Amino acid sequence: xxxxxxxxxxxxxxxxxxxxxxxxxxxxxxxxxxxxxxxxxxxxxxxxxxxxxxxxxxxxxxxxxxxxxxxxxxxxxxxxxxxxxxxxxxxxxxxxxxxxxxxxxxxxxxxxxxxxxxxxxxxxxxxxxxxxxxxxxxxxxxxxxxxxx
Length: 149
Fold this sequence. Notes:
The chain is of the alpha+beta class. The protein has a single domain (about 5-145), classed as Gcn5-related N-acetyltransferase (GNAT) (Aminopeptidase, 3-Layer(aba) Sandwich). It contains 4 helices and 7 strands; from the N terminus they run βααβββαβαββ. It has helices at about 15-25, 30-40, 85-100, 115-120, and strands spanning about 5-10, 45-50, 55-65, 65-75, 105-110, 125-135, 140-145. A 7-stranded mixed β-sheet has the order 1-2-3-4-5-7-6, with helices on both faces. Strand 3 (about 55-65) and strand 4 (about 65-75) form a beta hairpin. The longest helix has 15 residues, at about 85-100. It is globular.
């Protein structure tokens, strides 16, 4: 893997690699069918970070204007700590702003300290908690929001 990567809209050709990242990164991964449906949804923004044909990370967001909801951000273990997650998050925030969303929400596992630090570092603030929101293992979800307009 080189240190160069591009962030682009996801394509159907990348779904199998994105599904593999889901399986690697999450205990309750989205299926290829759900990923394909999301890609086709006009209210969903789906981005990938690629190094040539290799998907290093991806991010997805639903637009329910005037709000946006980040659904997932994942980076391959070998590509972590290189700023890819931060750039994907910033690209989603830019896409939400371009769509004229007023704010962007996300949920994160309460013990995912790396992700929490990333979100707080990018201006997201804690606004709530969902008890037992996640499974495998059961864990509370923390709700964050960022005003963008």
